[in-house]
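Regression test attached.
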Amino acid sequence: MTRRSILACTLAMAVGWLPVPASAQMLVNGAGATFPYPIYSKWFEEYIKVDPEVRFNYQSIGSGGGIRQITERTVDFGASDGPMTDEQLKKAPGELFHIPTVLGAVAATYNLPGSPKLSFTGEVLADIFLGKITKWNDERIKALNPGAALPSQPIIVVHRSDGSGTTYIWVDYLSKVSPEWEQKVGRGTSVSWPVGLGGKGNEGVAGQVKLSPGSLGYVELAYAVTNKLPVAAIRNHAGKFIEPTIESTTAAAAGAAKNMPEDFRVSLTNAPGAEAYPIASFTWLLVYRDQPNEAKGRAIVKFLWWAIHDGQKHPAALLYAPLPAPVVKQIEAKIKLITYSGKPILASQ
Amino acid sequence: MNTRRLISTTMSALTCVAAIVAVLPLLLIFGFLLVKGASAVSVDFFLHLPKPVGEPGGGVANAIVGSLIMIGLAVVVGLPIGIAGGVYLADSRDRHLPWAVRFIADVLNGVPSIVVGIFAYTLVVLPMRRFSALAGGLALGFILIPIVLRTTEEMVRLVPNALREAGLGLGIPRWRVTLRIVLPSARAGILTGVMVAVARIAGETAPLLFTALGNRFWHQGLDQPIAALPLQIYAYAISPYDDWHRQAWAGALVLITLVFLASFAARVATRGRTIAR
Amino acid sequence: MVAASVSRAATADAPPPGRVVRRMRAGLGDRLFGLGLTGAAWIIVLLAGALVAALGWEAREAIATFGWRFLTTSVWDPVQGRFGALPFIYGTLVSALLALVIAVPLSLGAAIFLAELAPAWIRSPIAFLIEMLAAVPSVVYGLWGIFVLVPWLRDWVEPPLGATLGFLPLFQGPPYGIGMLAAGVILAIMVVPYITSVSREVLLAVPRSQREAALGIGATRWETTRIAVLRYGRSGLVGAILLGLGRALGETMAVTMVIGNRPEVALSLFAPGYTMASVIANEFTEATSEIYVSALVEIGLLLLVVTIAVNGLARLLVWSVGGPARGGRE
C-alpha cells in the first residue's frame, strides 16, 4: 500500500510540476478593489481573445490591499476606487498613475420583507451609520417613505471589514452631507465604524445583507443587482431622489471633464446636476509611470488602451457606466506617458 | 445503595450522550456537504477553470493542482528536515538539545497558522517582491516539519533494538545501520506520519492568504501566485453568488474527502502500533 | 620487520587489522551523519527563533509607539493611525472561553465514556469519528457555519435566549446570528476532538491498580471513575483542556467567517466581535501604512506568545501523567 501510495502522490504532484502546454503565456498580476471586480473579470476574460499571450490575474482583495501591494511592488498593477493620498503616493518607490477605467455607483442596499422601494437622504444615512437611528420604523425614515411597510426591527448596519475604495466613496459622500460624520469618523479606505457588522469585500457585504433580514449595507451597484437586492433612491445635490443607474452615474460624471485634475484623482460624490446620482465614482488602475519589466509593461499599456476604447462596450451590461468621451482623450495622453527605461512604451509601437 | 447505583447509571448514560453529541457535528457537516455539494460536483468541476462573475459553470481544476503543488513543495522541503530531526531525537544521547527540540516542535505544532503566514510573508514574499507558490509551499512546510518530526521520532523508537544491535554486531557502521536498517523498517509508520501531516496542511487556508494569494488561471511557475482549494472555497463562501456557493460546497466536499482518505489511511496503517495517535 | 611486528601485535591483543580500518572509516561516516542529524535539529530551533525574531522586528514600530497601552486601548482607527488591541484580545479570550464552557463537559464526558464505560465494540468507531472531526479543515467549518449554524442560531436559538434570559447583559441585543455566540459554538465543535482524544489517553494511562483498588472497596463504576481515575489524571486532564484552549485561541478561518468582524468590546454574546487571528486575516494584505502593518504584526506576536505559553503549560501537564513520549499528533 505504501509503495503504491507514494507512486500515486508523486504522479499527482508531477502533474502540477509539468508546465501546462499553454504556459507560453505571461502572467500579469494585479490586486485591489472589489468594486470593479465584475467588470475587470469580464475584461480579463475578453482580453484573452485580443491577446492570447497574456493572462491578467486579478485578485479582489479590496482597494486598501491594492494600494499596499502596488506600493510594495508585490503585484504589477493595483486597483482602487479610493484615490491614493499624497502621503501614500510619496511612499511608493516610483511615480504612480491613476488611470480611470469605468464609473460605478455605490448603492444603499437592504433586506426587508417584500423588498419595498425606499428613499433616503444623506443625513439620514449618516445618522444610521452613526448609530443615531436604530430602527427601521424611525420617524425620519417613515417621513421619507410614507407608503412603505417598515417593521420595528433594529437596523443591522453592514460595512466593510477590509480596506475598501467602496468605503472611501461612501464615507466621502457622508462626510460631505453630514458635518458630524466628517468630524467623528472622516474619510479613508478603512475607518473606525461606530456601529455595524463587517463583511469582507463587496462580495462579503452583499452576502451578509442577503443573509440577514433587517440589514442595510452599501455595495457597488452590480453586486446588488446580480444578487437581486433592492437599492434605495438617494436625494442628490439638486434635491431630487435618484436611483443608481447607468444614466444617473454618467450624469454624475458629466461635469467632470472640465475640471479634471491632471492626475485624475477627483471625487464625484454629491455631484451637481439634476439627474446625477450622488454616490458615484471613478475607479482607477494604479500603474507605475516607469515600468520595471518591458514585456509586462507593454502588456499593461496595451491592455489599458484597449480598456478605455474597445473595452468600454462591456461595462453597461454589468451596470457600470462607460467613461465620458472627453475624459478618454485625457487618459490617452496619460497612457502615452508610461515608460520603460525612460522610453514611452506606446510610442514605440 | 440504590441511589449510588442510580447515580452511576445516570452518569454512564450522560457520558454516552456526551459522546454522541460530540460526534453529531461531524455527521451534520458531512451530511450538509453531501446534500449541497454533490449536485455541483461533476467532471467539469474537476477539469475547468473558474468562470468570471455571473457566468455559471466553471470549476476548480487550477485550485486542486495548486494545492497539490504547494503540498509537494512543503513535503520536499519539510520531509528531510522532519525525518532527520526525528531520527536525531530518537537516537541522540545528548542532554539538552533533544529536550529543547522536542519542546519546540510541540510548541510549533500549536502555533496559529496565520502567524506562520505572516512569517512567510516577511521572509519570502517581501524579498521576492511577489506572491508565489514558493511562499505558500514554504509556509505549509513550516507547519509540516513538527508533525513529521514527532511521528518519525516515535516510529524510530519503536524499531526493536535487536535490529540495531544485529547490524552493529555485523560491523556495519552506525550511520549505515540507521539509514539502511532502522529507517526502512520504520518506513510505514513514518509515511503515515507524513500522510497525517499532509492531511493537515491540505486544509490550511490562513497561511496561504498572503503568500499564494490565489490565481484564476493555471499556475505559471513557482514564483507566481497560485490557486489553492481552501482559498477558493473561502472566496466563494463569502461571496454573494449562489452559483459560487454551490461550488464552495462542492469544493469543500472534495477537500474533506481527500483529507479524510489520507487520515483514514494513516490510522489504518498504524493500527496495532502503540503510538500516541 | 615493522610490518611483521605490527601484525603480531595486532593479532595478539588488538582486533584484526581489517576491523580496525573499518571502524576508523565508520567513525568518519558516523560523525558526518551525526552532524547532519544535529544540523536538522538546529534548523528547527533556528526556525522557531527566526519566527519570533521576524515578528518582533516587524512589530517594533507599534511596540515603540504604543507601548503597554496597546493592550488596553479599544480604538482601532487606521485613518488616524491609532491602534489598540483590546477588542481583539477580548474577542479571542471570550470566544475561546465560551468554546471551552461548551466543549469541556462534552469532551470529558466522551473521554470517560470511551476510556472507562463503553463496551469494546463501540469504542473504536466513536473514537474514530471523533478523530475524523479533528481532520476537518477550518474553512469547511466556516462554510458550514455561515450557511447552517448562523441561520439556525439567528432563527431558533438567539430569539428564545433573548426572550427568556434577556435580563442578563450576556443575551441582549438584536439576534444577528453572526457574532460571538456563533464563534464560540464553532470553536467548541472544533476543540472537542482534541480535548477528547488527549483526555482519553490520559485516562488510559492511569494504572489499573487505581481502578481495582476502588472497585475492591465496593465503589460503583462512576465512583471508581471519579475517585480513582479522574483524581489521578487530574493534571493531565487540565493539560488536555489547555491544549483545546490553545487550539481555540489560534483558530482563524472558521471564526473569521462567523464572528462579524467588529472591533468592539461588547458584553452580549449576540454582538459581533473580532479576534486577533481574524483581524490579521482580514486586514493584513491591505494595511496601507507602516504603523498599521506593525500593529497587526504585534497582534500576531501577542497571539504567538499566548499560544506558546498555553501550549507549553499544557504539554508539561500532560507529560506529567503519561510521560514525554506522548502527544505526537498535534
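Expected vs. actual: identical. Residues 273-277 of chain B have pLDDT under 50 and may be disordered.
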